[in-house]
Amino acid sequence: MMVTLTIDGQIIHVERHTPIIEAAKQLGISIPTLCHHEGLQPFGSCRLCIVEAFRGNRSKLVTSCNYPAEEGLTVLTASDRVLETRKMVMELLLARCPDVPGIRRLAEKMGVEAVGFKKKGDQWCILCGLCVRACEQMVGVSAISFASRGIEREVKTPFGMESDVCIGCGTCTYICPTGCIEMTGDPGPPGHRVMDMGDLALGSCSNNHDCETCDIDQGFLDKMKRAIESVRL
Amino acid sequence: MEKIKSSSQLEHYRESIVHKRDVGKKVIRLCNTGCRGRGSSKVAEALENQVREANLDDKVTIKKTGCHGFCQIGSVMVIEPGNILYQKVKPKDVPEILSETIVKGEVLDRLLYRDPKSGEKIRREADIPFYQHQSKTVSHNTGKIDPTDIEDYLAPGGYGALDKALTTMKPMGIIETVEASGLRGRGGGGFPAGRKWRSCREAPGIIKYVIANGDEGDPGAFMDRSLMEGDPHSIIEGMIIGAYAIGAHEGFVYVRDEYPIAVEHLSKAIKQAESLGLLGEDILGTGFDFTIRIITGAGAFVCGESTALMNSLEGRVGEPRAKYVHTVESGLWDRPSTLNNVETWANVPLIINRGAQWYADTGTDTSKGTKIFSLVGKVRNTGLVEVPMGINLSEIIFDIGGGIKRDKKFKAVQTGGPSGGCIPMNKIDMPVDYDSLKQLGAIMGSGGMIVMDENNCMVDTAKYFINFLMYESCGKCVPCREGLKQMHEILSNICEGHGQEGDLELLQKLASFMVDASLCALGGTAPNPVLSTISYFRDEYEAHIFDKKCRAGVCRNLFDYYIDEKLCNGCTLCRVKCPEEAISGEKKKPHVIDEEKCIRCGICFSLCKKEAVLVK
């Protein structure tokens, strides 16, 4: 079923339940995001893609990556309330990862000059979950996941041990918006790659490093790499 | 056990239970759940052994019940007939209880409760002020029946509501009744239960689920636990009725694993109900099938949030889902699901039995029925209290709770758990209902009530709850995870004496951002402790930030202890106990604290019987 909605004054017809961010894209309106990827299920964790959705006179802030298009919906993607909220998200992320170039660039672009918060971190990971979801939904192996909760949340292999299901495809490295998963050569057998993210150890090859008989489709990996890079920050 | 296949068979079975009970026998009702913390298991063991040894089996029945509510005076024992309440019962009291009260019918004066106000001993449970001002409705069975024996639940009419609903009512009729009763969710949100059921019934889909939320995670709250432990069948009966109304055939009870007695009693109750044909296939011969499974959670506070709970039920990481579709349409395994708190479910049989009007007669315009609160903190009588909606906070704290310990000054009451708010003295005449509490910047939550006195620092209180949430949120979204971290940093700085101008404004800005931008209700309500304390106790924040003073004597960098020489009688206790040898003075002469040496550990402050140690 097609529905009609208004985004920043422009009218658009889309399939019902299309995420607002997709509908906006069709109108050439770009909404910033750090955790959304077309190839993955919406996650709604970074809250950067927040927009203001109106029903009658009432409005609320919603994340455009997963807010479904409904008939008669009016959306503002850059109202003062939206911009203030996004700035605060960036300010908090900048306090967490002050040294990450991608985050600094985006913050600057959004007009965040100084960070008012005292607590500064030294992390590179923003916990957007792109790597975790890509590994689960694209690659299908779930070599990494989130562990712990609250401020102790982190991305990890099960029990922090070297993963025995990682195929070394590098998807997590390609998709990471902050570059915190490094792909390094391994001193071990040829063809063995290691992704470094602090204590995160990925790298066991499911095929015992026998690339000759490997059934992982190289074309698939190349395609994935291109797809991911085309929508990178 | 033969399965019950009709209303008349249920009635017949009930009559046979009542008939075989010996009305001449005395009954000892001993709390065997909450009071286990005070050794009631040992009391029960002593009772059972000595009754057997003395051949008193034909004279007395020992009933190991759920929580009586008055946890302050545990282990609690009530003897019928006579409604005699014995407090703080120890195993050594058992021989005398049996020989005097059970055999001779004499009341043991020394075990009776003494009313601190009048100084008089009170013999009957019902005459104790703590109970007098309550209206036990949902919790009427807890403390009365043996929760591990379905016959105890059946005897006074249990499962009668299920029979009535299944044999005389249509699903829509049940939903209309629950809607008309005005029952709202007891887990915190206060969403109208009937409307939720209707949406779930009307949602497309063949397979639907009902779920009971027993993941009570608020520090200091234990009302859901008491219901699951003390009256599990009321929850099960409510769930079956709800499932029938919604059109569900599978149900789940999500209980935290830290509640082993709740898990044990619920499991037993489900087995017993199944063996009687009250659960399972063809319930009461009506053709309606319904099963319940218990799932234990691993104790994450966030798993009380509905979508996180469903994720956890599915075996996934317990974190809220980012979805703008209601769980009544797409919940557990993306199927229509009705999730209610266990207390909400336990209300349902009462509504079906006595009608929507009866239920709606209690409470305020928008909040109906009664609510169980766990009353804890600096109040004289701590425990579980059930009161009608609309009662004043002051009635709960002063009439039921008996006022503040050691006659200190009341400062605030924190309602609604970690994401609730602190309500000050000048607002405690407000009625307790969903909307009034929200208006005050607090929430009903699941019903925690923490009373604080003049020695509680409100900045430190806000910091405590923010710290709890910082570790107990899921950590998925930026506003909640990073926002709480920064909030905690600012509050810690203020408490350590490093607060600066602008901190309060930054806290408020961060708070309103978190309300607006967080993924789930946990993040949306997490700033409440900060916002409510700033709005009601701004002077205390300002004293911390500008005067560098914590007048409550909590934030160690911001106060000094001194001894009032007029009050000090020179007992030397403080001098002897001070770990830093910071106190000097001769016997029977006023003592002095050396501020340089004092580490403000508070030992002298809490030990001094003359209350001569003061904060400046």
Structure, explained:
The complex is a heterodimer of chains A (233) and B (616). With 233 residues, chain A is of the alpha+beta class. Chain A folds into 3 domains: 2-78, Ubiquitin-like (UB roll), CATH 3.10.20.740; 80-123, no CATH class; 130-230, no CATH class. Chain A contains 6 helices and 10 strands, in the order ββαβββαααββαβββα. Chain A has helices spanning 20-26, 80-96, 101-109, 130-139, 171-175, 218-230, and strands at residues 2-7, 10-15, 50-55, 58-63, 74-76, 145-147, 154-156, 182-185, 193-197, 200-202. In chain A, the strands form 3 sheets. Chain A has a 5-stranded mixed β-sheet, sandwiched between helices. A 3-stranded antiparallel β-sheet of chain A has the order 8-9-10, with no helix packed on it. In chain A, helix 2 packs antiparallel against helix 3 (101-109). The longest helix of chain A has 17 residues, at 80-96. Chain A is globular. The mean pLDDT of chain A is 84. Chain B is of the alpha/beta class. Chain B is built from 24 helices and 20 strands. In chain B, the strands form 6 sheets. Chain B has a 5-stranded mixed β-sheet, with helices on both faces. The longest helix of chain B has 19 residues, at 478-496. Chain B starts with 6 loop residues before the first helix and ends with a strand. The model of chain B has no long low-confidence stretch (mean pLDDT 94). The A-B interface holds A 42-48, 50, 61-63, 65-68, 81, 84-85, 88-89, 92-93, 95-96, 116-119, 126-127, 129, 145-146, 148-153 and B 300, 302, 317, 319, 322-325, 469-479, 481-486, 489-490, 493, 506, 509-510, 513, 516-519.
